[in-house]
């Protein structure tokens, strides 16, 4: 019989016994390091995990925060040939993935092919089925080439036009990786060459790296005598598979959104590069980094004072209410967190990373087929009920307010209980909330602390109906 897949879907849903079995096996001889590399973690992040008592468990926790599924883990284990560990996961993934235990490479394409034929390609899931349709692309669309730096025939053109004689064939997602990039980008947003960016970053000098993630690397550069941040989309691991294709699709969704919705509290996108070794997005460089870095004093940053924190909270609310109200149907960001709030030289916040943004309903919530975002910032009705609405952003914003007020992380595994900040704060009586105040912010304007905590509790209410719209939140700051 099939397992209850709606129960065992994500990494954090795996029962404790099986999780411990995986951790024990992967911790032996540091087998987890190969898994971490395949999950796109770099040597620096892997080095930090080596110091953990149970590095595999910490790895699963980190990966699980981004709502990765057990089926994804099953596929990765097959790629690195950890077949014995796949048998532990086998009862918790759909039977269509079980063939990976027999023949990894040949059968993986069959799985993806079967999924494409059996799933509704018009559902709300942001996945390859929504951009890999069997239609002849516009001959004028841009070709995004992914170069594997191996043999010439391994270069893949992500949106290469399908030949006429192939029109009746159903393409395999893993082999063709079709992405349509609207021609409008060529006229409304500058498209620049990869060589220009190579020069702008001093040949992608490691000293210019601002940050890394599953998507690739962000570099600081000088382009057109302007300081910019360049997001270079590059896969981690041996395969150019659906995860990389999805990242590229999300990035071009980000181009469309940022190109059409300019606002003082939305991160400006200057240009993009496509058609060469790696697609790139070029943003305005934020002098004061991310809110997350500032709150945790990374890179030698001094602590934010209360006035700066209030300016950041107000500006973020302004940006969100703009997204929710600019069109008839709201645009839901879907991944509001301190790491995605960037600060300019005046500490004015800019909301970034629109790769998960979705159009919502003007009247009610929408049901989605896949949960995306960062778990500690997501409400229960979305995690368990898959109900998408603007109130998702409101809840996430409430968690950011808690971070601003306390200086604590949205998730902290070192806490013995209540590892999520929302649960941790809810465990305090109102009379004791002053104990959580971030003393590093100083004493001047410290009355802002109570206001941030009060507003944070309102925005992160368990019931979506009891949370305010972001336009109401912004009005509170104005008043």
From TrEMBL:
BP GO terms, sorted: innate immune response; signal transduction
GO cellular component: plasma membrane
UniProt keyword list: ATP-binding, Kinase, Nucleotide-binding, Serine/threonine-protein kinase, Transferase
Gene3D superfamilies attached to this UniProt entry: Death Domain, Fas (1.10.533.10), Phosphorylase Kinase, domain 1 (3.30.200.20), Transferase(Phosphotransferase) domain 1 (1.10.510.10)
Domain Protein kinase: 204-479
PROSITE patterns: DEATH_DOMAIN, PROTEIN_KINASE_ATP, PROTEIN_KINASE_DOM, PROTEIN_KINASE_ST
Domain Death: residue ranges: 31-93
GO molecular function annotations of the record: ATP binding; protein serine/threonine kinase activity
Amino-acid positions noted as binding ATP in the UniProt annotation, renumbered to this chain: 232
EC number: 2.7.11.1
Pfam family for this entry, one: Death
Protein name per Swiss-Prot or TrEMBL: non-specific serine/threonine protein kinase
Organism: Ceratosolen solmsi marchali
Highest classification ranks of the organism: Eukaryota, Metazoa, Ecdysozoa, Arthropoda, Hexapoda
